[in-house]
Amino acid sequence: MSERKLILVIGGTGAQGIPVVEALSASPNYSAIVLTRNLTSTRAQTLASLPNVTLLQGTQDSLPSLHAAFAHKPHGAWVNLDGFTLGEKNELFYGIRAYEIARHHGVKHYIWANTDYALRIAGWDERYHWGHNDAKGRIGDLILAHGRGEREGGLLGGMAVSLLTTGPYMDMLFDGMYLPQEKEDGSFVWRNPAANGKIPLIALADVGKYSLWILNNPLQSTNLNLAVATEQVSFPDIAATFTRVTGIPATHEPMPLEEYLPLAEPYPHAYANWALGPDTPRDKSVMTWRENFSAWWRFWGEGKGATRDMGFLDGVLPERVRSLEEWMRLVRYDGRPRAVLKGLEDMRGGKGTRTGEGNKVV
Ligand SMILES: NC(=O)c1ccc[n+]([C@@H]2O[C@H](COP(=O)([O-])OP(=O)(O)OC[C@H]3O[C@@H](n4cnc5c(N)ncnc54)[C@H](OP(=O)(O)O)[C@@H]3O)[C@@H](O)[C@H]2O)c1
């Protein structure tokens, strides 16, 4: 029997990380060690009950924690930092340090859970800059530049790097920004500031499968930015698909950002790293939630992120969920809320301020 290769998963208890840990656990090739702040959370315990999965207590924004995690000498690492806790500046710092520390400890394959570098894609127009995407996107560029530079310089024995770039989760139709409202007459409405552009929604269930593909196919995945989506759809498309699947009338009603933002923020005058709670001191680099999500809605709503090569993705993962309609049927989508994001779940659970070590001193 071949020995399982250990993969360190950072962000493994989150919406995006859970399918990755599940896929590693179910595969014949890998085992997972999951970094979490809280070994006893429901999500952590559920993962710990899976075969080939162990937990490790620590935080993403602490250098000793990162060193301790990588000191387990994993073959690979799958790293998703949480911008909603860390904030842009800390995510940038710890994202770069996590990569450097992985190299120090001799990791063989590093997967950076990336997001679109919106500011660069939008031609450096500041109206499209928001912290929780651009921090990841900058690090993604840096990691790929190192990887490609080393290949060109003949350094083939180094660490393989791959970006797994996700857009907004399709699963956010259950939770967070994309949840519709049910009207008194039983119809549904998506009332939000999106224009009619196409958004590259990704079904989270496939994130685990794409991650396995990356690990299993290093020749194809090294230095690749695998930018994934299930389907690129506009909000009118989402409403029409919902009606086709459920038979329930649905519409998209665009509303101005100024009206939408105060209704949608997690609590009044939240910052972009809202998950730390309202009372944690922040420095002036941290965007407000409203600034952050104004740019977010502009970029995705105008279709600036609809860049995915769906034909290529069909080749990589022939069994992928092919469309929003297929996903809605698969998950029995009914427009009603279900918990997806751990950060929101923790906030609703009244756990108060979450600790992010790097935010203690500003
Ligand atoms: N929502 C979307 O559509 C979307 C799309 C693409 C990318 N993203 C990105 O995904 C990231 C969030 O991940 P998610 O969607 O999986 O969110 P989530 O469900 O809220 O999970 C957050 C994860 O981050 C971990 N975490 C947070 N702060 C930590 C810290 N200081 N130390 C250690 N672990 C920490 C949590 O672990 P514990 O609580 O167990 O410690 C949990 O695993 C964000 O940066 C966001 O930009 C989101």
Automatic annotation (TrEMBL):
Domain NmrA-like: 4-261
InterPro entries: NAD(P)-bd_dom_sf (IPR036291), NmrA-like (IPR008030), NmrA-like_oxidored (IPR051164)
PANTHER family for the chain: NITROGEN METABOLITE REPRESSION PROTEIN NMRA FAMILY MEMBER, SNOAL-LIKE DOMAIN-CONTAINING PROTEIN
Name of this chain's protein: NmrA-like domain-containing protein
UniProt xrefs under Pfam families: NmrA (PF05368)
Gene Ontology cellular component annotations, sorted alphabetically: nucleus
Keywords assigned by UniProt, alphabetized: NADP
Sequence similarity: Belongs to the NmrA-type oxidoreductase family.
Superkingdom field: Eukaryota
Entries under Gene3D superfamilies matching the protein: NAD(P)-binding Rossmann-like Domain, UDP-galactose 4-epimerase, domain 1
Organism name: Zasmidium cellare ATCC 36951
